[in-house]
Amino acid sequence: MIEWSASVQPLFVGGTLLWSGAIKFGGRSARRSAERSALPSLVGAGRALLAYRLTGALELALAAVLLLPPAYAGEAVAAAVLATGFLGYLAYARISAPDSSCGCMSTRRTPVTGRGFGRAGLLLVAALLGTQADRWWGGGLAAHPWAAGATLLGEVAVLVALSPEADRMWLLPLRRLRVRLRHPLADRSFEMPLESSLQQLHHSPAYRRVSGLLRSGLKETWDEEEVRVLCYTAEYEGRRATAVFAVPLRHYRPEEIRGALVDETAESTLLVLASA
């Protein structure tokens, strides 16, 4: 079991590094990601982008060695050393720059949390297991397609679960489904009318504060726990933005409505509209 499981680890590790390296080396928002990471604190602001892209280049080079035949014992060792370096960097970021973004596998701002440590730990364990491989991963996969395939799928599932960057693909839709199924009114023959939420919103201080900035009607809405989220297109200081409001779902409390103006392109909050 260990032999065929070890033989496919270079595929998992190499694929992960290919994803991560492509984001760092070729991503269009690499400069912003580097600036938001802990690299300016570690190597200086002027060298942060260079260090970020060099890390991506190293990941891509190692991914190519891992994915292409033949297999070398040293490539898995190099991957284990790199994963150990990731763990060290995350520890530094958590201690020295706690407000920094991970900058690991996405251009989105993602804080350094336990999930990041778990992901780097998973990569380290997979790389260490890969040092026991005695063949190229293609041969191991061909020899044990079902068992090796199930192992890879399990590892990918854990990787995705530990990656905040992937939450939009699975976690948020799952949460929305859970809310729909477990909502107190889910078993009734009616839903909370959207018109009641709009009426409450229009009487709220948060809405009145930015109503002149709105440039569209209601674009999107969904329910989360005890609030209904309403989204509009807005313009703030010459920048296109999205106005997001959280409206109490089961109570009429317009003074408690919160909101924000968000620049989705830059992934930044332009204005926070606190409850009264």
Q: Can you characterise this structure?
A:
55% of the residues lie in helices and 13% in strands. Strand 1 (220-224) and strand 2 (227-236) form a beta hairpin. With 276 residues, the protein is of the alpha+beta class. It starts with a helix and ends with a strand. Helix 2 packs antiparallel against helix 5 (48-67), helix 3 crosses helix 5 and helix 6 (73-96) runs antiparallel to helix 7.
Shape: elongated
Average predicted local confidence, pLDDT: 86
Tell me roughly what share of residues is in helical segments: 55-70%
Distance between the termini: 61 Å
Q: For the CA atoms, what is the radius of gyration?
A: 23 Å
* Helix and strand run: HHHHHHHHHHHHEEEEE
What's the total helix number? 12
The strand order across the widest sheet is 1-2-3-4-5
Report the sheet with the most strands, covering strand number, pairing sense and barrel closure. 5 strands, antiparallel
Q: Strand-residue fraction? A: 5-15%
How many strand units? 5
The secondary structure category is alpha+beta
